[in-house]
Amino acid sequence: MAVALFLSVLLIAACGLVYELIAGALASYLLGDSVFQFSTIIGSYLFAMGIGSWLSRFLDRALVSRFIAIELMVGLVGGFSSTLLFFAFASTGGFRFLLYLVVILLGVLVGLEIPLLMRILQERFNFKELVSNVLTFDYLGALGASLIFPLFVVPRMGLVRGAMAFGLLNALVALWSTWLFRRHLPHASPQRAACFGVLALLVAGFVYGQKITDTADATLYADEVILARTTPYQRIVLTKWKDDYRLHLNAHLQFSSKDEYRYHEALVHPGLASLAGAKHALVLGGGDGLAVREMLKYPSLESITLVDLDPAMTELFRTHPLLTKLNANALNSPRVRVVNADAFPWLEQSNDTFDFVVADFPDPNNYSLGKLFTTAFYRLLKQHVSANGLIVVQATSPMFARQSYWCIVETLKRAGFRAWPYHAYVPAFGEWGFVLAGDRDWRPPGQLPAGLRYLDAKTLPALFDFAPDMGPVPAEPNRLNDQSLVRYYEKEWREIIH
Amino acid sequence: MARDYPLTGGEPPLQLTRRDFTAGLVSGSFAAPALLGMTRKAPQRIEGGFVFEDQERGHKLRDHAQFPAPQRTVKVPVVIVGGGIAGLSAAWWLQKRSFKDFVLLELADRAGGNARWGENGVTAFPWAAHYLPVPGKRATLVRELCTELGLLKDGVWDERWLCHSQQERLFINGHWQEGIEPQSGMAREDFDQFRHFAERMKAMRETGAFRVPSEDGAAHQTTGTRDLDNITFGEWMRREGLYSPYLRWYLDYCTRDDYGAAAGRVSAWAGVHYFASREPDEKGPLTWPEGNGWIARRLIGRLSAHIQTGSMVHHIRPNGHRWQVYTEGVLYDAEAVIFAAPMLLASWMIEPQPPAWPVPYAPWLVANLTLEHWPKEDDSEPAWDNVVYDSPTLGYVVATHQNLGRQPNRTVWTFYWALAGGAPADMRRVLLGGDWNYWRERILADLERVHPDIRDCVSRIDINRIGHAMPSPVPGSMFHPERIRRATPQGTLVYAHSDLSALPLFEEAQHRGVTAAQHVLRLVGRG
User: Among partner residues A156, A348, A481, which is closest to B165 by beta-carbon distance?
Assistant: First the structure.
């Protein structure tokens, strides 16, 4: 009996310390400056415990049922503390206020616990033993909690479920007390009912803790994350803000549904509209199917081959209702063939020729991607383009990465192409560059497909004019054995970031 | 000068690694693993062994053991002994001149010599020489071969086989930098010393005494350049006042890499040659998954009708005006012999025994590591050649680097280690003294410095121990009379090997092979 009593002291102490640590850890995560957060939280908590101890003098009657009520309150407030704080951070400006309010409330309640328990127990033990035992177990509990918190609670349960677990412990101590102190509790049933109610709430919280964490995480981002997938090749994240969907690959923005039509119309139509009778087209990269959507506006095109590395990407844009709506179900068109392969080796083994090729690769920010912008790659591509055919290359920003852009133009020329550089303004990206390349003369198309939102035949030629701040600069061609482009690109973007 | 590490022979001392220690803690206390979440990860099981172990056959030759008498005699005008690049080049040249009456005898199951290669389910990979510097305008023979192999078209090098970016990186001061020449952490003085060194090399290049092939520079030697062969490269650095630790490390790395010996041991002439002989007209080098095996493979393909593999020559005896070349099965009776095997073997095979060969050999270890996945990289991409500053090893080369697509998950790394930490004979004992487990641990321990998770990536380590891997041009080698005697074709037995130049280079091997072939063609009346 005595051991059981003191064991509950140990548990109460452990729970009390854990809530304090949770508040400290959470504040450090969310606000940074962990020294400040932990110091102020521990300080306020201890101070609040002092208030609780002082307040205990005003409790004179029905100590046991008060003790049980306090336990349940600690369990509830403590158990839901991290959930509450996560949501508060994500959705209100009053996080700090709420943080200290929760800390002080918990401190007061925990501060009430030990004096009350000692008074309940004073008739059973002599004072000397009582103080010694209660404080011994109190400190032991603190030691246990402080060890278990970083080693087990945080890594295994996380802050949300960890808090719930300790809330459950408080509630269980309360329930247990209804038996331990049954002599003092003539009518225990209402108390027990309350205990079960609180337990049920906390169990539910614990079970759904992961969901709560996810929702809380999501609200931490500026935009709602509606889809996130990690594939062997990249991390695909789709976010939504109002009616704007944004696709990020490895945290690089690929498009915004608000203005992607500008990018994709500019990518496809200046070239394709100028090719009367183009029959076979190839898209390299561009697994989102948005370039394909534009190309399907040409009834004369018999086949479009899309080569994208990542099956997860093309699968997503073939099946996800939001995304198929965005690309007008382009990847499910009978005219479209999807190949999941690495573009360079795929081209090397292919015997096909195409009238129009879109090279829509991610920006060349590493040597692996840089290979897809080399003279070797373009020479290989040239063997797969029909005599009258054209290729178009997404070529990063002539504004922000000017030398990189003109390096791509130079590389195409060195590979034996004639090149027609042009650019378009895409709000999500800024000024963006493309290069049209072919063997023959090229004239702007006199007519464009119906229903375009950005381009028309009258304004299209203006895309080929470059303002002086984006005009040509000398650049070395990008070659497999000397990837000047990756160096330019890295240098130029670094200058912008710093 | 030598910033080498003493190597200890025999078994590694029993040492508790941190991993073992942690594992012991975990398994020793029942509650800890669950509490701490520290259950032991089963490390990747690493398989492998030694490959091409033919020290025994070599020692049999050295000790003049009894060989069975050949069962039949074959009369053939020309015999080439040895199927490395020199022998293959001699054969290549004979064939180009439409001379067909020759046979090439190769000891191993496959020709290739130091351009030998291997292949597994992941990729082909080199077993020794793994690149060819882009030949300059003067290197006409190499360019001729490159043109034949489609590497050079209308004066333009095919990008496909020029080493792709990023060529080299160096792990120094805790991070990877691009290029092997140290940049990170250098003071102005260090940069000044690099500049001074570059200027000295430019002046040396202008003398014309340092060419590839080295024979081309023979006419331009002066007392000044000849004197360089009397001192070590390390001594030359001291005299030049080059004391920057970064520069000295770099030069030492280069001599270990190219000559298998520390800068403090190689001839200053050879050290200078490394830096002053080349004028590439393209950023290179040329490289392939299987290294120079790519070239060997193509030469072997063209010459297969002439190549007899598995033919160990054990004696070469004069018989009147002809030569008798003994193998275990066949006695070849030849008008002329091109001896294209390492010079070390000549005194064991040829009668009468030629004077001792003056150039020592360096012991090497080459390992091919199969990786199931790549180690984690923080902010660097793997380069083709990956070197660690202040490591006794030479680093590793990625066999899949020339893939056109993105790097596959599985790959092969070729790890090079010239045992340059002491006298070659001692180092050979160390090399042969350690068993596979010992060398596996040494290799992993070296890689672990830069890839802490390497043990989780590697599934296989095959190791080739080469006691006499390449000539180390120590002082006195370059102008030694015996070297010059053998290098000058005369009579009906001619030597052809890069050893003759005391420089272990593809171009030297090819030059010696072709020169010997030209001499032999004159002998048989076809030149």
Answer: A481
Domain boundaries, chain A: 2-220, 252-497
Record: contact B381-A368, CB cut-off 8 A: yes
Hey, where are the domains in chain B? Answer: 67-110+292-358+474-523
* CATH of span A2-220: 1.20.1250.20
ipTM field: 0.82
Averaged pLDDT for residues A442-453: 94
Regarding the domain with residue range B67-110+292-358+474-523, which homologous superfamily does it belong to in the CATH classification? FAD/NAD(P)-binding domain (3.50.50.60)
Distance from CA of A108 to the nearest CA of B (A): 31
Q: What is the pLDDT of residue A216?
A: 56
The per-residue pLDDT for B8 is: 34
Query: 3-class SS at A316?
Result: helix
- Dist. CA A291–CA A272, nearest whole Å: 11
Q: What is the predicted pLDDT for the residue at A399?
A: 94
Residues of chain B with pLDDT under 70: 1-44, 526-527
Q: What's the gap in Å between the CA of B160 and the closest CA on chain A?
A: 7
Q: Which residue has the tokens 């660690």?
A: B388
Report the residue from A232, A342, A479 with minimal CB separation from B405.
Answer: A342
Cβ pair B165:A480 closer than 8 A: yes
Whether A8 contacts chain B with CB within 8 A: no
pLDDT at B449: 93
Name the residue with tokens 């503390």: A81
Q: Could you tell me whether strands B458-471 and B168-172 are parallel, antiparallel, or unpaired per DSSP bridges?
A: unpaired
Nearest residue on chain B to A415, judged by CA atoms?
Answer: B159
Counting runs of H as helices and runs of E as strands, what totals does chain B give? 17, 21
3-state secondary structure of A156: helix
Q: Which of B159, B405, B406 sits opposite A375 (nearest CB)?
A: B159
Query: Is pLDDT larger for residue A34 or for residue A381?
Result: A381
Q: For the domain bounded by A252-497, which CATH number is listed?
A: 3.40.50.150
